[in-house]
Amino acid sequence: MSHTVASLLAVSLILWIIVIGFAISRSLLPAIPAEARFLVIVAAGIAAQALVGFLVALIPWDRKTMSIFLLALPLLPSTLVIRRFRDVLLRELTDSRVALAVWVLTSVLALSVTYQHVRKPGKLQDGLYVFKTWSLPVKIQTIALSYPIDNALPAIVSEYLIRGIPFRSEHPVLPGQEVSNRPILMSLATVPLRSLLGPTETYISPLPRFTYVGTDWPNTEFLLTDETFRQFLVVAIVLNATIALAFAGLLRAFQVKASLLFLLTFV
Fold first, then answer.
1. What is the average pLDDT across 177-186?
2. pTM of the model
3. Considering its fold, how many domains does the chain have in total?
4. Do 29 and 76 belong to one domain?
5. Are residues 188 and 259 in the same domain?
6. HSE (CB half, 13 Å, CA atoms) of 72?
């Protein structure tokens, strides 16, 4: 996946979150304070995305077909709500233009970082590097100054959900890391896009095993190919970039000027 395609997917995901989130928030929570309205829209959209992921993983039908159907299904009623409250949405987007711009730019620039050339360390040491193949997840670890691989746990959990791998028999998902060690929201939110773009075949046989620090573990490394992990990163970066929205909302509550708001939030 090229950087351009990844960026377009990120922007498309942001638009889907806003459209669905606006329809949900307008229908269920019409009396939201102005300073919190955009944050509620985004939160509702992300919750809807996670719900779609939950249903795709739960319903025993073709994952790709279900993802297309469930991502498209709420667009029609959402479009009807937007047509009715078009002026409200335009006003909200205008008022939140700085936060929205920061969200998009942060997502695109963070994706750009993942495409940079990374020099392989002389040795991938135990403790820091569970996986020894010079793959994208390990490269991201190196870019992040040897950050623990367990931060890729949501990506592995999403692969379990997509491929129907049982958590009860194939655990831990990483050495010493169970699925309960991280919130599952990110994994669920990743399922629809990953199902659309990557392999979804059910994994029937037991997972291969590998030895790490003298102990036998399920080998989940093969689940994180460069392509599938890139698809996960698109969703993960967009969702993590929403922290900028919270900061922008805080500054907006203090009536910081738009130019300074953009600078402070982006930095």
1. 83
2. 0.86
3. 2
4. yes
5. no
6. 7
